[in-house]
Fold:
Amino acid sequence: LVQLVESGGGSVQAGGSLRLSCVYSEFYYYMAWFRQSPGKEREGVAVIGLGEERYADSVTGRFTISKDDGKNIMYLQMNRLKPEDTAMYYCAADYGAARLMIETYNYWGQGTQVTVSS
Structure:
């Protein structure tokens, strides 16, 4: 049974930081973070795998993705948070490619909420 479990969300003021975690049950070539705000489409935030890292333009320089395959944990360090970063954040995984496209991933977690107040 594939399991991806996110944690670490919460409420923070603009300019603050949060670190999200995703515990995964097995190894995947590529793992990513996506986010979705009410009324908006789910969008890719960052992806990591096989020596590659990619970020959405909106988070480049503020967010850092990493993972520890020895512990089966992926992280998203989020710094200098903005109100527009408010969303449900989802962990995703698969074997395809380092893309920030929803259709690339077949395995998803349930999400963790991040709320940034101004």
The mean pLDDT is 96. The two ends are 40 Å apart (CA to CA).
